[in-house]
Amino acid sequence: MQELTFTDDDEGKKVLRGDDSVGRIVDVEHGTAYVDPDPGLTESIKSKLGWSDGASDADTYPLQEEAVERVDDDAVHIKERL
Q1: What's the CATH number where 20 sits?
Q2: Across the beta sheet with 61-62, what order do the strands follow?
Q3: How many structural domains does the chain have?
Q4: Domain for residue 1, yes or no?
Q5: pTM for the whole structure
Q6: 35: domain range?
Q7: Of 7, 21, 56, 72, which has the most beta carbons under 10 Å away?
């Protein structure tokens, strides 16, 4: 599988899990996308994405490559089963 590298063009894209919004990419640094999670995102989903609040003052979380199913022009789709 080819390594996934995010670019500035990915900023602003929705992050979707199935039909549900998980958040939005708000920053890309060194090929890593950082996601501002939706306020209603459950703790169990955050935990599966590695976003559990060990750092409670974190506003954004890195999107792990292994969680990504595909990227299209409008959104980043993450795997429904992590």
Answers
A1: 2.30.30
A2: 61-62, 32-37, 20-29, 14-17, 75-78, 68-71
A3: 1
A4: no
A5: 0.83
A6: 8-78
A7: 21
